[in-house]
Amino acid sequence: MSGYRPAGLEDSFAAPSADEQAPGSAAPPQLPSLGPVGWLRWAWRQLTSMRVALLLLMLLAVAAVPGTIYPQRAQDVAEVATYIADHPTSGPWLDRLGFFDVYSSVWFSAIYLMLFVSLVGCILPRTRVHLAAVRGRPPRTPRRLTRFPAQAAGSSSDTPEQVARAAAAAMRRGRYGLPFVRAYRVDVHDEGGGTWSAAGERGYLRETGNLVFHLALVGLLVSVAAGQMLHYRGQAIVVQGRGMANSVQAYDTFEKGSAFRPESLEPFTLTLDSFDAVFDPDSLEPRDFTAGVTVTDPDGTRVADTLKVNHPLERNGAKIYLQGNGYAPSVTVRDGTGDVAFAGAVPFLPQDEVYTSRGVVKVPDVAAGQDQIGLVGYLLPTAQEMAPGLWRSADPQPTDPLLVLSVWSGNLGLDTGVPQNVYELDEERMTQALEEDGTALTLYLRPGETVDLPDGLGSVTFDRLDRYVALDLRHDPALTAVLVFSLLAFAGLATSLFAPRRRLWVRAAPAADDAQDHGPGTGSTVVSAAGLARGDDVGLQPELDRVLAETLTPTRGSRTP
């Protein structure tokens, strides 16, 4: 069945069989082998094609998704360690494949570099062709203008040369007399026999916009890469009355690029002098946060300044933002021997709009032979007892603060080598203190009060309640470049989408020469015009009518069609 052909049907594309080939006939042509150079040329053309560039752009967006799903080691080492510990089967494999370092992994960098090469390889030849086309002259006027979609005709008493030059001036001038609106590149040509023509072309701005868009994409890739290499970002919590130095070691978390150098940080210190929070008295919604700070330079110069939300403090190209705030109860914990094992302010994290805050006090430095102590609980800025043993905060302002703690003892696990969250207690090797009836033991403390810990563990004192602020230091030298290239990309894309590509032709001939085509005219010159656009262009015919109307202006003794 595979060799069946209906009778009388010739298939000129089918190769003749061995029996059908005439003796001495030539063998069918053989395609030449590409060879290594040919295959490399084919691969380069595929890589630099627009189709592959778009594919790589989408692939880059897909490759960035794991960076938003899995914790990244550059942002939170402890979270990555916790994830691997919680997923002993998949965690190590994900780590080997680079899913916790997505943006510095080999496969993400390969896609990034291939996209960069593809864009550059696509832009360079197109730019060369575009520049040659821009420097070229508009196409000459075709012999027959009646085959084009936009047509117009008229007559004038001026000579053909004057009409052609007037048409060229009308196309070059553009609408409304603005030189940069609807302007054409024009060429006036003497066709012989007294006939003159003017050819105009516009729309190369469309390709210019397309090239600007792709160049802006390259600029964005370079800017983002430079920003990832040079940027740094640090977060720190500063308690009221205390300060911090602008050094890598002083930040609680610090993220940096591969090209960052610690000496690039400006050496200054920042002290939190005061913090004021304003809340709506009815809805308790926050209205204003103001942090009064003092910045001290290395030469001893002290400058007082304020920090507000969305009003950062700028230092040496970096910006310090007021990221958050809360309460830091200052506590003193004594061990079973009466010695001070811990003393200081402990930041508690707000959990709701009334600043019910949760925190952990870890006391590892206790007397020899004694279990380590962990205190977990809540701070209520304005405590209100709803039922026996049930407390809540009624206001975010600290009018009646209460510290509610549960007691744990055992091994805090700080010596295991696994990073821990300072706001969480590892309860695996800890035992919670219980009442005689088996319920959890709860301690209630107000500022100035001291409570003994159970089982001879010692005592805890609530000294005072301080405020703290969370500061976020950011420095990215590529942000300005990213903004500029983003605007350029938007402008180039808009230009490539909305700039029309048009060609207009106007031919002026003596009336006697075109009498057969146009009939007798009142003027001495018969004018015919046509227009052509790339794609659908509803403005082509109105544009052609405008050019012809300005060419045959009544002030020149002519009439419009």
TrEMBL record:
Membrane spanning residue stretches: 52-70, 102-124, 211-230, 478-499
GO biological process per UniProt: cytochrome complex assembly
Record-level GO cellular component terms: membrane
Residue ranges annotated for the ResB-like domain, each copy included: 50-545
Subcellular location: Membrane
UniProt entry keywords in alphabetical sequence: Cytochrome c-type biogenesis, Membrane, Transmembrane, Transmembrane helix
Topology in membrane: Multi-pass membrane protein
PANTHER family reported in the protein's UniProt record: CYTOCHROME C BIOGENESIS PROTEIN CCS1, CHLOROPLASTIC
Protein name: ResB family protein
Taxon lineage: Bacteria, Bacillati, Actinomycetota, Actinomycetes, Micrococcales
